[in-house]
User: Which sequence fits this backbone?
């Protein structure tokens, strides 16, 4: 009896040890991550803002870069309490092109034994059947990139400029008449004084004609001098005012594109572009756009070229994509394209994808939060994709340095300066009794 109890006890201990030891070993491996290197898929495309890689010709190793890559490396190497080894695996065919779409890449995470995927991966409900997502490392929305609207821009510049020019010409005529009247009165006074003081011998016809010729030339030169000064000031005022009004009028107008909505694109049968591998294609088909009107774009250069052409020349009239990618493009081509503000579809953002029930997922999400709180994420963005708001087309308030009150003050000041110069010339010239002949070019002749 005693022997049977001993045998039963040994059997029980063996069964318990057989069941618990593998679980303990597995749990230790999952907690430390020392025995397993994570296999992380990355997309392979010519859009290099978020993910890019190149092969070192000497070592044959991959060098990875891009915003998403740098954020993931910072999380795994610095923001986590325990380092987790990982390895990036390009999701590519033997020829180097991408092996399908982003959805295909996430399905491979689920079915081919990979641990996760990194890139500009949009967090979508339809993808949660294959993978689990971390918290977003970058907020985003779905936007539409279009060309600036071509055609004349209606502003209030014409009316304002005509008003300024008309007022300035009126002041010019007033100043001219004033100087003409002063010169005419001085000429009459001078001619009467000369006639009264001259003897019959000195009042020959030749001297009288020469005297009047000099007086007429003197009046013309003085008047022209004042008018030239006045028009120089006037030219500066009109130039400054016109430039200021042009800049202000254009800056205060919101960016306007050729198309405002998907319905307008569908109605006009316009071609629509989308980025290679993006889920946007399926979204646009569900929205009602004909598949024959959808054009895949493989690089930023192709996006610029096709959007510049338009549908009439075999290009596209709009590009639908995630807003961060469009802002990267707009920052380089502020004078050509704009993100249509009336079209915006909210999205959850960009996140990292991992296979279902991955034990480290909460820890990695906490690492992203730690980067955000320490401003490390903003620094990484500045070093990689830069400031996405660098070309927001906001009006520059400093350009409107000439308002209506300032303009009239400048005009009045210019007129006062011209009148003061004229009065000084009249007084100075009136005090001079004699000038050597000839005096055609002297203002005080």
Assistant:
């Amino acid at each position: 009896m005693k022997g049977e109890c001993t045998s039963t006890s040994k059997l029980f201990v063996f069964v318990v040890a057989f069941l618990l030891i593998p679980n303990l070993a597995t749990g230790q491996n999952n907690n430390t991550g020392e025995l397993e290197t994570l296999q992380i898929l990355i997309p392979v495309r010519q859009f290099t803002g978020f993910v890019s890689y190149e092969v070192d010709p000497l070592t044959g190793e991959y060098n990875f870069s891009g915003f998403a890559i740098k954020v993931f490396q910072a999380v795994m190497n610095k923001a986590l309490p325990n380092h987790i080894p990982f390895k990036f695996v390009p999701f590519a065919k033997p020829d180097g092109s991408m092996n399908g779409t982003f959805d295909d890449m996430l399905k491979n995470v689920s079915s081919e034994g990979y641990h996760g995927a990194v890139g500009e991966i949009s967090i979508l409900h339809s993808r949660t059947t294959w993978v689990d997502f971390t918290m977003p490392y970058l907020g985003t929305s779905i936007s539409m990139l279009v060309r600036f609207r071509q055609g004349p821009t209606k502003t209030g510049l014409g009316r304002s400029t005509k008003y300024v020019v008309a007022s300035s010409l009126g002041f010019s005529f007033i100043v001219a008449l004033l100087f003409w009247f002063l010169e005419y009165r001085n000429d009459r006074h001078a001619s009467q004084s000369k006639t009264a003081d001259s003897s019959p011998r000195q009042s020959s016809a030749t001297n009288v004609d020469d005297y009047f010729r000099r007086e007429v030339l003197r009046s013309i030169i003085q008047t022209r001098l004042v008018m030239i000064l006045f028009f120089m000031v006037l030219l500066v005022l009109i130039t400054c005012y016109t430039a200021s009004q042009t800049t202000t009028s254009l800056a205060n107008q919101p960016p306007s594109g050729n198309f405002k909505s998907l319905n307008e694109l569908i109605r006009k049968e316009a071609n629509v572009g989308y980025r290679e591998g993006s889920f946007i294609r399926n979204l646009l088909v569900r929205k009602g756009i004909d598949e024959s009107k959808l054009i895949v774009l493989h690089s930023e250069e192709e996006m610029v070229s096709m959007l510049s052409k338009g549908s009439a020349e075999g290009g596209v009239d709009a590009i639908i994509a995630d807003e961060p990618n469009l802002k990267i493009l707009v920052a380089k081509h502020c004078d050509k394209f704009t993100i249509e503000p009336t079209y915006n579809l909210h999205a959850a953002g960009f996140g990292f994808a991992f296979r279902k029930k991955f034990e480290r997922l909460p820890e990695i999400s906490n690492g992203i939060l730690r980067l955000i709180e320490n401003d490390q994420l903003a620094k990484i963005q500045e070093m990689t994709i830069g400031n996405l708001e660098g070309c927001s087309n906001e009006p520059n308030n400093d350009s409107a340095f000439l308002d209506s009150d300032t303009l009239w003050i400048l005009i009045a000041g210019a007129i006062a300066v011209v009148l003061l110069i004229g009065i000084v010339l009249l007084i100075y010239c009136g005090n001079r009794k004699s000038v050597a002949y000839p005096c055609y070019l002297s203002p005080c002749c």
Residues 142 and 322 are 5 Å apart (CA to CA). The first strand starts at residue 38 and ends at 42. The chain is about 50% helix and 15% strand. The first helix runs from residue 2 to 32.
